[in-house]
Specification:
Blueprint lengths: L3 E3 L10 E5 L1 H20 L8 H22 L5 E4 L28 H15 L2
Antiparallel strand pairs: 1-3, 2-3
Length: 126
């Protein structure tokens, strides 16, 4: 696993980090927007639904708002902390756990993966 952090203004990053730009933000925004559209369409006639469906809508809506708040922090871009690469137990992974979690559909481009591979080789295979 390679830990990520969001870009902070006026913070200098060392040579063992890699600026990934805002690709992760854009991908998450696209996923979140898709979830919002699906929710709007699914609950278009919410006033006609039974109470338990309305409760589910509220739960889903709160989840989307929480995700939007979290991804707003990534707007300036993400930094991969290559020097902190490590293995982790699957019990430490709290998101995504199911295929409906927002991070389960997150992917970066092959180009980004190639840049990460190059940086790993540069740092660890000198």
């Amino acid at each position: 696993m390679i830990p990520l952090t969001s870009i902070k203004e006026n913070k200098k990053y060392n040579s063992s980090t890699l600026n990934l730009g805002n690709e992760i933000y854009l991908n998450l925004k696209k996923i979140c927007d898709g979830m919002s559209q699906k929710l709007s369409k699914e609950y278009e006639n919410i006033w006609k639904l039974p109470a338990e469906k309305v409760e589910q809508f509220n739960t889903d809506f709160k989840y989307i708002k929480k995700v939007e708040k979290e991804i707003a922090k990534m707007k300036k871009g993400s930094i991969a902390l290559i020097s902190q690469i490590t293995t982790i137990s699957k019990q430490r992974i709290y998101d995504p756990k199911t295929s409906s979690d927002i991070l389960s559909n997150l992917r970066v481009s092959n180009n980004t993966l190639d840049v990460i591979d190059t940086k790993i080789k540069e740092l660890f295979l000198k």
